[in-house]
DNA sequence: ATGTTC
């Protein structure tokens, strides 16, 4: 794939064949790799109604149809499509960061007790376990009311909603567009991590790049934090499966052709498109509630051991499509913005930000790979790509490759030698997430900042990890 | 990511 260097951090793929717009890849000469993701960037550029460009963030890698680390916006009033592959199977997968009233130096003497407690109270792995057993009509309410329903039922409080994207619940969710099978899968999983790259980490603020913004976010140097990375479990997965199948069946009848069946799509303003968006919104609410109750459970463990609880910094999703208003070629347009492995990064002054964050911009939470740093970033005024930035380190090797070449016991020893207390789930799961299978998160974040997509606020390092 | 192959 031919990349044309526009600036040190911005590269272009010129339109060819059925591409309607160029590809724009935010990367660097050092970071750029091609595992097939750039071909996918070009494929996405062929989607009906796509505007401006098919974007890739610095952590881009190959995914189902769309690349992970991709951003694509379509013009809803001009037949623009929505594609489940542009959101991903783990709908509204995201990150929740909570800050403890505890210093790094306080942690070590209680580390084992805290990690044992977090391990005990955090269901994880495929299938089993959840911290919240929902009452009879609970799932339907959760799908429409998200974290607000959890608060109503006694989990956490108003601040948890104020510091969650969309106040804890996205509008326009319709449980009727969620299949019985999807609901069945989701019913017993509210409050569980899942597996793969999902985790709960205890971290310490290792560096602060912007004191004023960090203070507004509720963070300071050497503070202990808890970061939770998880999504919508089997429910979101089943919704994606159901709607991809439906769109794959009806796409040809609409006269839509795509270069890859995994780009199955429908006009956002069509029955199939609206049905997916309504089901996706339900999964987004599920994911918010999932992270919410896991955060409350973690806070109870910390309070039990230390007498100090947790305050929410922010909760953000990096797998979602949203209907947003943006200026394109001088016109205000209604766009369906797909972010798959990409994080919304609202600039200072944006009306959707809570009042206490409006001056500094949206907190952007970037989980590193296991045992490496994580970041807190902020949105910037000049942000390109519809106010989006990266979402993590980004894989360089497949799960299979990582598992084949990693000794899980050695990896665990290495982590513990670096002072990270490990509470794993399975040896294979640990091996698949070896940091050597990922890009360097410090490099990814530096490129994202260099490309003008966001700015650094704080760097966090792991003290303990509960692995999904 | 995922009751890791409906």
TrEMBL record:
Q: What is this protein called?
A: tRNA-splicing ligase RtcB
Q: Which GO terms describe its molecular function?
A: GTP binding; metal ion binding; RNA ligase (ATP) activity; RNA ligase (GTP) activity
Q: Which residues bind GMP?
A: 197-201, 318-319, 367-370, 374, 391-394, 467
Give me the reactions it catalyses.
a 3'-end 2',3'-cyclophospho-ribonucleotide-RNA + a 5'-end dephospho-ribonucleoside-RNA + GTP + H2O = a ribonucleotidyl-ribonucleotide-RNA + GMP + diphosphate + H(+); a 3'-end 3'-phospho-ribonucleotide-RNA + a 5'-end dephospho-ribonucleoside-RNA + GTP = a ribonucleotidyl-ribonucleotide-RNA + GMP + diphosphate
Entry's EC annotation: 6.5.1.-
Binding-site positions, Mn(2+) 1: 90, 198
Q: Where is the composition biased (Basic and acidic residues)?
A: 174-183
Per the entry, the cofactor note is: Binds 2 manganese ions per subunit.
- Please list the GO biological process terms of this entry: RNA processing; RNA repair
Positions annotated as active site in the UniProt record:
391 (gmp-histidine intermediate)
Whom does it interact with, and what assembly results? Answer: Monomer.
Matches recorded under PROSITE patterns: UPF0027
Region: Disordered, residue numbers: 162-183
Name the coiled-coil region(s): none
**Record-linked SUPFAM superfamilies:** Hypothetical protein PH1602
At the top level, the lineage of the source is: Bacteria
Q: Which Gene3D superfamilies match?
A: tRNA-splicing ligase RtcB
Could you say which cofactors this protein requires?
Mn(2+)
**Annotated positions binding Mn(2+) 2:** 229, 318
Tell me which UniProt keywords the record has, alphabetically: GTP-binding, Ligase, Manganese, Metal-binding, Nucleotide-binding, RNA repair
Family named by the database record: Belongs to the RtcB family.
């Amino acid at each position: 794939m031919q990349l044309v260097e526009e600036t040190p951090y911005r590269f272009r793929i010129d339109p060819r064949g059925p591409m309607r717009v160029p590809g724009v890849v935010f990367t660097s000469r050092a970071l750029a790799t091609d595992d097939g993701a750039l071909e996918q960037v070009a494929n996405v550029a062929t989607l009906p109604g796509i505007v401006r460009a098919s974007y890739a963030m610095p952590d881009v890698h190959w995914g189902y149809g769309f690349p992970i680390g991709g951003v694509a916006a379509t013009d809803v009033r001009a037949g623009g499509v929505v594609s489940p592959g542009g959101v991903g199977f783990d709908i509204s997968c995201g990150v929740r960061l909570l800050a403890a009233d505890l210093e790094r130096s306080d942690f070590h003497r209680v580390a084992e007790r805290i990690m044992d407690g977090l391990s005990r109270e955090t269901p994880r792995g495929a299938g089993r376990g959840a911290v919240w057993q929902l009452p009879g009509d609970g799932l339907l309410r959760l799908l429409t009311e998200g974290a607000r329903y959890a608060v109503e039922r006694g989990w956490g409080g108003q601040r948890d909603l104020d510091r969650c994207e969309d106040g804890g619940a996205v509008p326009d969710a319709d449980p009727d567009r969620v299949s019985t099978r999807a609901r069945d899968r989701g019913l017993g999983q509210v409050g569980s991590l899942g597996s793969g790259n999902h985790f709960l980490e205890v971290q310490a603020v290792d560096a602060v790049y912007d004191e004023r913004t960090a203070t507004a976010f509720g963070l300071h140097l050497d503070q202990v934090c808890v970061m939770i990375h998880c999504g919508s479990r089997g429910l979101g997965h089943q919704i994606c499966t159901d709607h991809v199948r439906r769109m794959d069946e009806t796409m040809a009848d609409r006269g839509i052709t795509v270069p890859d069946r995994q780009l199955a799509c429908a006009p956002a303003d069509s029955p199939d498109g609206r049905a997916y968006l309504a089901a996706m919104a339900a999964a987004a609410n599920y994911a918010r509630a999932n992270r919410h109750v896991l955060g409350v459970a973690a806070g109870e463990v910390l309070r039990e051991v230390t007498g100090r609880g947790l305050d929410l910094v922010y909760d953000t999703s990096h797998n979602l499509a949203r209907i947003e208003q943006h200026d394109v070629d001088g016109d205000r347009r209604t766009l369906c913005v797909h972010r798959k492995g990409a994080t919304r990064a609202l600039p200072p002054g944006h009306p959707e930000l809570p009042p206490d964050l409006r001056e500094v911009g949206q907190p952007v939470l970037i989980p590193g790979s296991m045992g490496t740093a994580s970041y807190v970033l902020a949105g910037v005024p000049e942000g390109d790509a519809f106010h989006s930035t990266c979402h993590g380190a980004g894989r360089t090797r497949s799960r299979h490759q990582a598992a084949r070449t990693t000794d899980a016991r050695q990896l665990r020893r290495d982590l513990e030698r670096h002072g990270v207390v490990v509470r794993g789930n399975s040896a294979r799961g640990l091996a698949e997430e070896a940091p050597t299978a990922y890009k360097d998160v410090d490099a990814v974040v530096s490129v994202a900042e260099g490309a003008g997509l966001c700015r650094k606020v704080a760097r966090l390092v792991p003290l303990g990890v509960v692995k999904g």
